[in-house]
Amino acid sequence: MQTAIPCLFMRGGTSRGPFFKASDMPADVPTRDKVLLAVMGSPDRRQIDGLGGAHPLTSKVGIVSKSERPGVDLVFLFAQLQPDKDTVDTTPNCGNMLAAVVPFAIETGLIQPADGTTTARVLTLNTDMQCDITVQTPGRHVEYEGSARIDGAPGTSAPITISFLDTAGSVAPGLLPTGHVRDRIDGVDVTCIDNGMPLVIFAAEAVGRTGYESVEQLNADTELKSRIERLRIACGHAMQLGDVTAKNYPKMTLVAAPRSGGSICTRSFIPHVCHDAIGVLAAVTVATACVLEGSTAKGIASLPPGHIKKVSVEHPTGEFSVEIEVDAKNPQNVTRAALLRTARLLMRGEAMVPGSVWAPR
Q1: What per-residue confidence (pLDDT) applies to 264?
Q2: Do residues 144 and 187 both lie within one domain?
Q3: pTM for the whole thing?
C-alpha cells in the first residue's frame, strides 16, 4: 500500500514544487527526508518516479505551518533536493518558493484572508528570517491572474510583494562574514556577503570571462566550473561556513557592467549549475553588494542617486528589480529590501509514497 499525503503543487516565482502542511508530514527528520526524496523521485537524473522536474529549480519543496511565535503568522520550511542526489538541504532560503507560502496557507485554511489584500508575516525556519508577504485576495479568495510580469515565468499574474525584515547573516555569521567588504582569495578579488543568501561575488573578467556568456556556454565550460568550485570551497572557509563541498552554498556570482539598461549583469552558479535567471535572495544580496563601497559589484554597477535605490539585476533571461533602502547617515547600512514576485496554484491532490518509505499508524 502507498501512503497518500495532501499536497498542493505550486509555482513560486521562477521555481515550483509540492507544498505540504507540516502536520501532514513525518515528525522525525530522517523519515521526512526519505518521504521528500520519494515524492520528488530523487536520486535520478530524470526524476521519472516522482514529481521533480529534472532541474534544481523544479526540485524544491515547501512545508508550512501556523506559527506559535507572537507577531508571526506562518512558519515556512524550504527543502532543496537535487535530481541525481539523495540529499535534502534545509539550510538555505528560497525567495521564489517563499512567494507561494501565503497563497498555500489561504488555500488550505491555515490563515483567513481579508477582502482585498492579505498580508501575513512569515518566518523562514531555515535561517530564522522574517518577512511580510502581501497577496491579492478580492472577495476573500486568492487572485492568481493579473498584470504583474517577472522574467523567468511566462505571461502575467497577480503581484505578490515581499518585504524582508532582517536578512543579514541568514546562514553566514553576519552580512560580511569575513569582516571585509572585499577579500582576495585564491587569486581573485571577491565580496563574500550574505543578505538572505550566502554569495561570493566577483568580476567575470577576474576569471577570464565576459559575464555575458549564455547559460549553455557556462555549463559546458568545465575549466571555469572547476576554477569556481575551488574558489567556492576556499571562500566557504573564509566565510566561516566550514567545508562547503557537499553544501548548496555559497552561490557563486559573476558580475559585469549592465548592457540592457539595468544596474548590473550577473551569471549565478547554484552552485554547480548556471542559473537560467537568479534566485530571489541572491538578487537581494547582489543588490546589497552594489551599494557597499569597496565591493566587487560597486565599481561595476550603475545606480540611481538617493537613499532608496531600485537595483535592476540583469540575468540570462531578463532582469530582477530589488528596492534597496540605505541609512541616509550611513550608506553602508542597508535598512530594507523589497521585491515583487508572482505565484500560481497548479494542482491540488495527494502525493503518493511507497508504504515501505512511510506507513504512519
Answers
A1: 98
A2: no
A3: 0.77
